[in-house]
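SAMPLE LOG
Freezer: B-3
Tube label: C17
Construct: single chain, 485 aa
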Amino acid sequence: MKKICSVLSLIVLFSCNTNQEKNNTGKLFSAEGKKVLVYTTADSSDLRLTLTDTVLFKDKAQPFENEISVFVDPNKTFQTYFGIGAAMTDAAAETFYKLPKAKQDELITAYFDKTKGIGYTVARTNINSCDFSSDMYTYVQENDSALKTFNIDHDKKFKIPFIKEAMKASGGKLNLFGSPWSPPAWMKENNDMLHGGKLKTTMYASWANYFTKFIKAYEAEGVPVWGITIQNEPMATQRWESCIYTAEEERDFLKNNLGPTMEKEGPKDKKIIVWDHNRDMIYQRASVYMNDPAAAKYIWGIGFHWYEDWSGGAPMYDNIRRVHEAYPDKNIFFTEGCAESFDSSRYYAWALGEEYARSMITDFNNGMVGFTDWNILLDEKGGPNHVRNFCFAPVHGDTRTGQLIYTNAYYYIGHFSKFIQPGAKRIAAAASRSQLLTTAFTNADGQTVVVVMNQGKAKANYFLWINGKAAELNLPAHAISTLVF
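STRUCTURE (predicted):
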């Protein structure tokens, strides 16, 4: 098994050229004299977010047909980038506090420090228990529909201190959103937090107020809440915490209960995300929500996951583009994804990182504004998980040895999160061969960031071409580079 050293010794600190002219002048972008800094992570090598090259743009007219090129046009701009992060679940927090203090500090720096780490700016957490909790819990006593007993004492032990560590490392700029997996059992028709079931219509008002109580309680503990999703995976009946809503039920709960309650009780500035489930049904769900103005006015965006059954074909990426085309004023936000079926022998499987990058590149190109990974940290068993639904995280903490294990997914995600800054604009990027996948952004300071992944088995020699100028580059097989200029 390969040994991966501490991430803090692998990430190269860099200084960025911020002299590029901004794209709001109407002037054609010029790459004349610009240096391209190349950061690479590659299979069968020690390269992990490593500065591997510095290349100059030179004159180059139309590329030849047998040349591989990545074409970028900074003058064609699209959606605004929101950010990248991960879920800070009970499982992640419990694992974190089982590690030595030095490893805790290393992990927080690796994820949230903008210079020494990969600069996460987004976090998700669970409202009530989820599968990645060691126990089942809610914030109220049974049958307390008035929510007089509401308290978050459970979260004060691990989750809230963990989130505060992340907030501190991120410079206080952490957009945290909460997602429920299930209301309390007594609020549901099946009287069970597990196995699906539906929220009783008589509990709609109480459940809407539950969200506001959660937000206020977290903020009273010094943890600002940026937003919420209405329901994690509202069409999945799971053996763990779950609750079912049709599109119409979710829409009506939003417009008649949750939205008005958020406005009345104070946290009306908090963002509300609908769906929070797979790409497969996202267009149908979006059309039901967005075509109703009374519901749509409360919606910041629509969340999605990548677990749809694509039966050996390609993931249903086009569904994201369809929603973006139909509802361009609403944000499309990836709220969960992970590699399932945990097996510790696959810690260093290269496919783990490639799955992330393939999804991120394609979804960004189709209109996605941000990406939230699932558990930010799990233990050596892919848990803890009270229903044994174990999976991978980009980093695992071995609670037996006190060591951190970085899968290559951590580095692949970092090729985006470390370099693209919130507020950036996606710009046009296209590769001339399917071997390469690419997306590109211009940061608010004028810096351009191009991500290129080689998903092929052969090294790719290629040109980064912009308006008659090109930088000559190469990318090993099964590797990813971020180009900064």
